[in-house]
Amino acid sequence: MRTFIIIWIGQLASLLGSGLTGFALSIWVYKNTNSVTQFALISLCTLLPGMIVSPLAGYLGDRRDRRKVIILSNCGAGLSILSIAVLYFIGHLEIWHIYAATAASSAFNALQWPAYNAVIPLLVPPQHLVRANGMFQLGLAVSQLISPVLGGFLLVTIQIEGVLILDGITFVFCLVMLLLVRLPKPRTTTKAEGLKSSVWHDALVGWDYITNRPGLFWLLILNCVYHFVEGTAIVLSTPLFLSFTSTAVLGTMLSIGGSGMLLGTALISTWGGGKRRIYSVLGFMLLGGLCMLLAGLRRDVLLCTVAIFFHFFSLPIVVSARQAIFQTKVALDVQARVFAFNRMLIDLSLLLAYLSAGPLADQVFEPLLTINGPLAGSVGKIIGVGPGRGIGLLFILMGMVMMIATVTSYLSPRLRLVESELPNFIPH
């Protein structure tokens, strides 16, 4: 665990620095353009490169030295942000520079995560995998909870240049932590591993591995449904809550939600997810769907705050337990390709959610629940009519989709028994 702890500390610092920079740059873009569209393009530049480089990420993570892949990817991401700092200091920073640097940084980060996830089972005993993944989720939770608050304070005190310098310091610290450790190499456990192949052939190895194991395949499909619903919530939660409360109250609600994510990560890091991790995945996914349903049901700040808290509370438990199942049941020498393929499908699910959520809300659901809308006399009598109620109905439907998908998955013996039917790959 010592090597894992050293790497984790470095990644925690890097995540916090990246979170601060992402927040600062997004504010800078919005203030300089006054355009929501250009502001939203940052999210697109963060998402698309990961999908494009996923096949290469899986190939590098399994065919090359994973330590070197992680180090070089961190260097690439750091240099991308350094270019922004240099352009800002010389007074030549433009909006397209931020888009380009964000895309480059996202691509380099996408290159390292399959290798990073595949390294964890080589460092951590199988019974502690959920805890290890929970610790990583803790880093994400701390970054998401602290970055907006600390970033807002730092933008006032040390300005954006100070934030960029601070991110550079965290990058160097993460790099030093990586240089301090050596990582073991996995044994060859699959026949295809001895063959020389192309990047695209290796990308298909991840697909073949998953589809030949129905339990893992259905877990992946459930995973895509989960992230599509999550993506819809990410896009529409702010318009939904601002339809009946103020910005200040919304900030408080989201802060409480962030604390729920922090508590969820603390729980899974100490508890470990139980003997049957699939039950943790399904049970807390069901809770997340119920919370989405409740959030759309009423214009009630207290009810929505409770829903946000428990939704965020369930998120790290679902992700950590699910990740531990894949790390345990996938052969160690193909894990990077499998994780890269998983990441590509997750990003595709999020992209579809980002692209469809706005049009669905504006052109379909909101008109249904205007004062004289088609559903005003039926559904409107239950959840209300007016601004935001169409989005509320969409939240209810998304919550129901997640709950139905979870129950259906539990009824599938291949998914429910995935941990007992597939062998464990224990590192030596």
UniProtKB/TrEMBL annotation:
CDD domains linked to this entry: MFS_MefA_like
Top-rank taxon, per record: Bacteria
One GO CC term on file: plasma membrane
Residues annotated as transmembrane: 12-30, 36-57, 69-90, 96-124, 136-156, 162-181, 216-242, 248-271, 278-295, 301-319, 340-357, 391-411
Keywords from the named record: Cell membrane, Membrane, Transmembrane, Transmembrane helix, Transport
SUPFAM superfamilies: MFS general substrate transporter
Bilayer topology: Multi-pass membrane protein
Compartments reported by the entry: Cell membrane
Manganese is among the record's keywords: no
UniProt GO molecular function: transmembrane transporter activity
Protein name: MFS transporter
